[in-house]
Amino acid sequence: MEFCESGGCGVSSLYGVGQVGSKHGHSSRDAFARRAPSPSPSAPAHSQSRLMSSTVRYVLIPANESDPIRELELSVPAKLEDNLGALTKALNAYYAAQTGGFTPEQREALISTMRKQVAEKNKDSPPPDEAMLSQVALSQTVDIVQLLPPIAATEWVGVSMYVDDKGVAKELPTNRRASEVCTQCGLSVQVLGDAFVARAWDDQEGYERQDFRASDLASDEAWVKAARQCNESRGSLDDAARRLADLNAPRATWQEPEISLDDRLERAAAGRSRGTDRFKVGDYNAAIKEYEAALALLQPAPADFDAAAGGARVDEMRLPCLLNLAACRLRQSRPFEAISACDAAVEIDATSAKAWFRRGQACSALGQHEAARKNLLQACKLAPSSREIRDEYERCKEVAAAKGPSIF
What we know:
The chain is α+β, with helices and mostly antiparallel strands. It has helices at 80-84, 86-99, 104-121, 130-138, 176-184, 222-232, 237-247, 261-280, 284-298, 307-331, 335-348, 353-365, 369-382, 387-403; strands spanning 2-3, 9-11, 18-21, 55-61, 69-75, 142-148, 157-164, 195-202, 207-210. Helices cover 48% and strands 12% of the residues. Strands 1, 2, 3, 4, 5, 6, 7, 8 and 9 form a 9-stranded mixed sheet that branches.
C-alpha cells in the first residue's frame, strides 16, 4: 500500500476540507458510479470479475484535519479469493502500525468487555478459553461502513468506508470530515481515527474493485445523493419488527371473512403472480404491495379455522410470498425487513434453503458476517447442488476471515 503523489487540488464542496492531497481532478458528476466492464461475448456471466488494471485507487481521510485527504493505490490480486480480502488486509496492517498496541488499562478493558459479551450470549455454556478471548479482543480488524449499497438501483456498484474497529478502546480522535461524509450519505456515524473510502462492483456473481478518487467525495456527487436515498429508506430493526407484528396481529376473523378459503387462496395466488411480474421489471414497491396483500388474505387464521384441513394449503401459499418479500427488501437495501420475512418463512418451513440463504444475505448486508456464515452454511446443507448459494457462502467466508476470528 503506497500513497500517491499529493498535489493541491481544491474542492470547495468537499465538506469544507479546503485542499485535497491529489493531483487528479477527475469527477464523476455525470454518472454516480463507473460501471463494470462489458463482458466478453464468450465469457459466462458469472465469471465477469476480471480487472481492468492491476491497481485501483482509494482514499484516505485523516482524522487530523491539518493533513490533506490523499489518494492511495492498492495492488489487486488476480485471484478473486485474494482480491476480496486484499484491502482489509492492507488496512489492518496500517492501523496496527499507525495506532500501535494497547496500554495495560485498555487491554484489560477490552478483554473484560469481551468476556461479558460472551457470557451474555452463551449463558448456558462454560466460560470461554482465556487465551482465545484475549486473541479475539485484541485482534486488529477493520469495521466496514456501507455508504452506498451494491444493489440493482446503483448498477451493483457500492462505496464503503473502512475504520479501525478498536477506535473507542484506543481513544482515537473524532474524524470530523469522515463523519460528515457519512452524514451526507444519510448515516449517523461518528468516525474515530483515520478512515478510508473505496468502491467496488459486486452483483453477487462477479466482483471488481474500481477507482475511487478524492474528488468523488464532493457532496454534490451523484453517488452521494443515491446513497442518501438508499440509507434514508432502509428503516430499522424496530420498524421491521413493528411491521411484521402488525401483519401477524391476532384477529377474530379472516380479512374479508365472507371470502371462502378456496377463493382466498386463488386471490392470493393471483396477487403473488402480479408481484412476481413487477419484481422481474424492478418495480419492487409494487411487488411488495402485491405480496403483502396476498399475505393479509392468509394470516393470521381465525380461531375456528380448521388447520388440519386447510393449514398446509395456506402455508404453501404464504411461504413463497414471504420469500419473495424478503428478496424485494434485499433489492431495496432494507435488510432488517428481509430478516423479518425470512424469520416468518423459517417458522413455516425450517427446511427452506431460500429462507436461510436470504437471511444470510441480509446479515451480510448488515456486516453481521458470522451470522451470515451460519445461515448460508445451513442453506448449503439444504441445497448442496445450488451454485448460487455455495458461491455466496464462499464469499462470506472470505469476508469473515478478513475480519478476523470470532468466538460467538
